[in-house]
Every structure is written in C-alpha cells, then in structure tokens.
Amino acid sequence: MTLNPCINLSFDGQCEAAFKLYERCLNGKISFMLTWADSPMAEDAPPEWGSKIWHATLVIGSFRLQGSDPARGPHESPKGFVISLDPIGQDAERVFAELAEGGIVRMPLQETFWAHRYGELTDRFGIPWAINSEKPE
Are residues 61 and 91 in the same domain? Predict the structure, then answer.
C-alpha cells in the first residue's frame, strides 16, 4: 500500500489564476485542468461559471496539489491547515516573495533557531503557506 497525501484546495472562481502562479512559482506542472463548461457536470453549474475550473491537478516532484472552483454554496476561506514548503537556499526568498505578492504576510521570512529562513503568509487567493528553509547540518 502507498499513501499519497493530496491537498484539494477550493477557490472562489480563481483556481486557474492560482494554479498558474503555483506552477510558475513552485516549478510544477499543471497535468490536468478542466472547466465546468467542458465537464460532464456542466448542467450543475450556473451559466456564468462555465469558464471556472471544475478540477485541476498540479504536480510538483512526487506531490500532487488539486483544486477547483465549487459551483454551489458560499465559498469558505481555508482554515485549519498550512501548506509547508522547504525550498533550498535563495529559492526560499523568491518563493516567499512570489506567494506573498498581494497576500498577507503573517511572519516575515527570517532566520530562526531551527531554520535558515522561515516565514508564514496567506497568498492573494486565501491559501496559507509556511516557508521553512532548514539550516544546513
């Protein structure tokens, strides 16, 4: 048996923009993206929701990040989790800056007793991130 943890993010109509940012910023690859209009569930979505994302998958190394723009019910901001990244060296600065643009920095990227660089933010799409670039041993 193999355990493949997967994070499935919900957006309020901004899934495509978020996944394009994550693809570029995290050096990933969008392996699948389907709009509501092109999905078998097209009739379940309001007409203005046709260009929104029914399902998307982003592959980063061996990790999969999934997302969608749910068509029904009020959107709820994510809570109770954070996506933690461990970029190496100067990449921590770049990743933090790109994800923080237009978002909210909760803890600036800085040296801590456990990390070369650590910082927390919520990106402009409402997704919480922690950047944890560990100190070399």
Answer: no
Structural domain for 16, as ranges: 6-68
CA Rg, the chain, in Å? 16
**Contact (CB, 8 A) for 36 and 53:** yes
The pair phi, psi for residue 57, each rounded to 5°, is: -130, 130
Q: Cα–Cα distance between 18 and 40 in angstroms, integer?
A: 23
Over residues 35-90, the pLDDT tens digits come to 999 999 999 888 889 999 999 999 998 889 999 999 877 778 888 899 999 987 77
Is 31 among the domain residues?
Answer: yes
- Number of domains into which the chain is organized: 2
Residue owning tokens 């389907």:
34
DSSP states of 93-110: HHHHHHHHTTSEEEEEEE
Judged by DSSP in three states, 19 sits in helix
Q: Give residue-wise pLDDT tens across range 10-50.
A: 999 999 999 999 999 999 999 999 999 999 999 988 888 99
* Three-class SS state of 133: strand
